[in-house]
Amino acid sequence: MSAPEERAALPPVSLYSCALRLLRAEPDGRLPEGGYALPDPPERRPRTRTSWKSACEALTEVLTEALTPPASRTDADTDAGADADADTDTDAPGVARAAEEIHPRLAGLSIRGGHVQSVVTGLPLADEGRARALGRCLTRTGTSPMAVCVGLALLTRLGEPEDVPYLRVLGRLRDLADHAVRALDPIDSPAAALVWLGRHTRGPELRGLVDALAAGEESSVPGRLEAVLRKVREVRPETARRVAEAVRLADLLREARPGETGLVAGTGRLLRRMSSANDYRAEVLACPVAVGLFEAFAVRAAELPPTLDHHAILLSVALELHSGPSRLLEWGAGRREVLLDRLESVLGRPDWRALLAGGSAEDGDPAGQRRLDWARRTARQPFRRDAGCTGPAGRLRIEATVLDPVDPDIVETRVLIDRRPLVPAAFGRGGAHAPEYLLDSGRLRATDEPREVQLAEAYCTESCCGALHVTIRRDGDHVIWSDWRRPAPPPSLLPARELPEYRFEAAAYDAEIARAENDHSWAWPARKTARLIAAGVRDRPDLLTRWDVEQGWIGTDFRDRDRTVVTLAHRAGPSAGQGGEDAHRQHLVWHVPDDGTTPEHRAAAALHRLATVDPRTYGGGGAGRSARSA
Question: Which residues contact 528 (CB under 8 A, 6 or more apart)?
Fold first, then answer.
């Protein structure tokens, strides 16, 4: 008999057993980067091509049968079922036999793991004990990925602490890791985080931390962690959250010796990264220990020495607590306010105030100067007590918020209704639009004619993951926000809820919108110059129409935020044989030079140039030009 024939003649080995064997062979129990590949099954069964709906219906039918106890059973059947169940630590009669019977049917299904979870989540469970036992049988004895995936989906709903060791082992298999993480999250978030990090992280600092955690090398974890925290701005927000959960960061911070300022500062950076919406949702809302982590950080914040970097960290955390997604966490009465008071007390000390009193950053560093100017403009914003006032006249608060300039996306419009940030609560797939889009354009003004406004868009695009729309209309003495359009929000600790119709007193609404539109205190000089140019072009459309030019984007350069950029578009002459409609659309990029004057002066000069010189001729003299076909 050949070797393949011998392997085929052997009984199939469960995926759990395969993963356990690989784990025991790994030196010091370390996690392989990316996880282990699934072992080849001894026999490949052809899968029937069916529609997604048919596959889900078939899965529902299989599980419904397996979860229905047999109506009658002989004594022999009962004894056999009990013995089999005992081997897999289950206690529902006949579950092991049911798992064995449905295994071939599950293996033959062609359905994605996310759809499996969706089916199991919506499945009525008359007997949760039997469903839990079936999940355990499938995860521990399943020999096909689909059978194990179904078992993990059941344990995502019904898992208990005794399931954690099995789930951690299965999480070593690359294709099952995310399913195992979903099952672990509700019952052991540090274990879930370690499995997730083992599957998804790269780089020497993160891999060093993961290896130390997996091997139980507790003494080396703090040093490995600080190496990660120093570069935390380079990692994804979910990675930051999983690091906090895996190392039990709140406990580490509480137990750290006085003077461990690297850990304190790193925790502040990590909190800011977790709160970023650059990963579509603010990961801080999915972190079960977020409140405790904020509290531990605020308690230790006073230990930080006064430096510009530390000032930016404390100010960033305060902005997040003031109006960011973290305001949506379950704080309880007064707890969040206590943390803001602590941070305000630290930043209000004379040695910290002296940081902002100096004329310029050390060594004339442009990035440091940009950060220093931001801290001066933003210093009081998170500590104002007028945001989100109670009562019908103060239900709405609009704030243009600029984050630490070292962050990639630094400007957003924060909309608070009844003290709650609207966009992260209602959408969670990207941040709100910039103030130029929502405020400078007048989109939030209420008129008698209903108007639909896009408040936020997914980072990918609306056509991919959607956007948040609301219809704004004036109704007598009130302004109404209603008729919401949005996709289903992504999973988080926030309960999904229907968006209500919001009704505001018209006078108070108009006053708040006017205040927000006329607040320019947040804008740095180049951004203010761009806003003034855009306002001038809106007020005088002839500045562009006279040259047969259309307005594009007006703002600041993504690579250099101290440069004002004006983009314009026009149609170049058609190529030979083409009509006017086929002319190429060309784009002009004009960098408005910084001549050391005020934003008002620079904007006025730019508008005068648009009025007197054809922008299609711009080139040199501080103006850049580029063209591309569209």
Answer: 520, 599
Q: At what angle do helices 335-347 and 308-323 cross, to 10 degrees?
A: 150
The dihedral formed by the CA atoms of 112, 118, 124 and 125, expressed in degrees to the nearest 10: 70
How many other C-beta atoms can be found within 10 angstroms of the C-beta atom of residue 503? 15
Helix axes 189-200, 177-184, angle to 10 degrees: 160
H runs (alpha helix) in 301-360 = 308-323, 335-347, 350-357
* Contact status, residue 324 vs residue 423, Cβ threshold 8 Å: no
Please report where in the chains the tokens 């080849």 appear, as a residue. Answer: 40
3-state secondary structure of 54: helix
- Rounded to two decimals, the pTM is 0.87
User: What's the average pLDDT block by block, 10 residues per block, for the chain (630 residues)?
Assistant: 50 89 81 82 50 81 87 43 41 80 87 82 91 95 93 96 96 94 97 96 92 91 93 91 97 93 96 84 92 98 96 97 96 95 97 87 80 94 69 76 84 93 89 93 95 90 86 96 82 66 95 94 94 94 93 89 91 55 75 90 95 84 35
Contacts of 507 (CB under 8 A, 6+ apart): 393, 477
**Distance, CA of 629 to CA of 349 (rounded, Å):** 56
Identify whether the C-beta of residue 375 lies closer than 8 Å to the C-beta of residue 385: no
Q: Token digits for 31? A: 């996690």
